[in-house]
Amino acid sequence: MTIKRRDFLTFLGGMGGAMLFDAVPRNPNIPRFSMPFMGSESSNQAFAANSSQLSFKPIKGVMPLVTDAIAPSRQSQAYKNVEVVDDLVLPEGFVYDVIAAWGDRVGDSRFGYNNDYLSLVETSNNEGYLTVNFEYISRTPWEQAYEKVIGKSLPFKEVDAALKAADKQEIDVWSLADSDPLKSQIALIAKEALTDVGIGVISVRRNPDGKWVRTNSSADRRITGLSGLEDGRYLKSTGPAVAIFRKEKGLGYTDQLGDRIIGTFHNCAGGTSPWGTVFSAEENYQEFVPEAVMADGTSLSPSKKKFSQDNVDLFGVASVFGLAGNKYGWMVEIDPANPNDYGTKHTWLGRFRHEAVGIRAEAGKPLVFYSGCDRRGGHLYKFVSTGIVKDPKDKANSKLLESGMLYAAKFNADGSGSWIALKTSTAINPHKLDVLGGKMLPLPQRPEGGVFKATKEEEIAEFKSKFKTLGDLYTGSDREKQGAILIDAHYAANAVGATCTARPEDTEIAPDGSLFIAFTSGSTSSSDGSPDLRIFKGADGKAYEYGWIMRLNEDANKPEAMNFKWSMVATGGEPAEGGLGFTNPDNLAIDRGGNIWMVTDISSDKYNLAIPNRKDKSDKPVSQSNLRGLYGNSSIWVMPTSGKDMGKAYLFGFGPMECETTGPFFSRDQQTLFLSVQHPGEVTGVRKDMAFESRKFAMRTTNGKEFMQTRKVPIGSNWPSRKPNDSPKPAVVAIRKIDNTAI
């Protein structure tokens, strides 16, 4: 689905007659322009005037844009030759400072790998706690640099040889005898990998020169993938799934730890509560532990997730330690200011491939959390608390997450939608396959447990006739059934007809209560599922890779409403095809001027992939997935939501080679934009001797004229040191203006 700028303007000015950020009542104790999106029509006009004047000159990227001020007739010449740089490229007048990088000391552990979501909880002016997610391990650069960065060696060669010799190049490490040397070797690698994921808290301070530096306080600490295993620092849990965790015997595997949980991993995006806690989203946990569960919510055996690897990832690293799969895939809450807090998993928020969280806490109303499941065919979810928020800044609000209901979104093609409760009495009503691009729907398999992939309408009809309500799919007491539903949330949502969406990667709430959602990719998948083509489609009605940003408004602006309105407000893709010039929108942030800041998430093997011709050797169009090579490196964008530039997208930055820029977060005074640079050199690893290639790209001007671009592309990365032959390392940076004024 594409959206023209006039439609964007109409929608932002519509939605019940309210301007985009004009529905928030003004606090008379706060100056009119010191709080984001405040005020009356007159203040809106002031914001419009300000936001139409960008605080930066957009950088020139690799693709002609409507906003780059180069006429279409001159674009082919202006973009004929382009050089990509292995650095974080920012507009003139901006700099970045590296705050921490993989391997740096944090408490009694180290700064982890592939830093993602960031949160600065400020304790005073120019000081606070920076909480950082560590998502996963990028095998190639991690192995290349491990000994140099960490200072010890691991048996990579021995395990690699064993995998190559194994059937299907995977090993059931859980079933190996404890005396088997291979089990010990895999355990060594797995322990270090799990140490490098999870959550970190580092204390920081801004110096008079504007630079943020670490202060190494007693609150600095790591919550790793193995916290609790040897140190007793277990994570806690709340909600109905605790009844499942406490089972000593079940249909499947139990770890005998009750409601205690060992570690957290695949911590991707997140959110910060008004009461000063940070929520960390466990996303692709299925890479480390089994995802599917039995009808009573207990896990499949660790032997079902075998140890393996490819050029980018490690898989099954939790199996050797016997971690129970049903304890991962949750939202983790941590209070960065409490050095004894190692996290709580709130099971009412559901278990799925969590990506981000939007928190709506308003006095006198229920507490509401939004989150997306980042998979092809994943759902958008909303939790509504039973209790009422009294003071949004009261830390007692965390208790509200212990009782409520989880809902999954159903989108209608006419722009309306509703919320479906994931409770035992909800009717079974799966989608028909003809609305899904991939013609496959994963559903709970009963009575065997696990999941089956329905590929025929007859299978859907049989499933619907056999099971009448969600409660029929699960066993145990009412509370145990509810816990099992939450553990199996994605497949339960499929069973009741929640809309299969296009990888919802961020959920950002504006102060007027409206929700912005970044849908990263509308492509189909034969393994996970596919989005609903009635909602997520290109101009030709087919699957659309490049993604969208959606705005959702609850009826009457009530957080607890069961109906909503939605519309796409930005579309990825080439300008010649109606897109804004980016692809695969990911994390979002909203500054106090009302601008949406967005970073992109392209598959690492597609960055700068040569496109010398838009047709392949068979004279068929190059796939949308491969065409993402046209877009260069991961990028940072700004989209004004008021003024004359509303609905346009401006290029603010480019990341280093093969990295993903993630987790944008503004300081309270807006003078600093914190950013994670994740997995530089993920595919190629170390850039050796400043190597580069010249590649050809069949580009288009904004009005559709084709031309050939020659692009100089570094091979691998040396970021952040940028010294020849240095190992690339994920790192967190603070972006600021040289004059230290507000961004």
Automatic annotation (TrEMBL):
Family annotation (InterPro entries): PhoX
Protein name: DUF839 domain-containing protein
Organism: Pseudanabaena yagii GIHE-NHR1
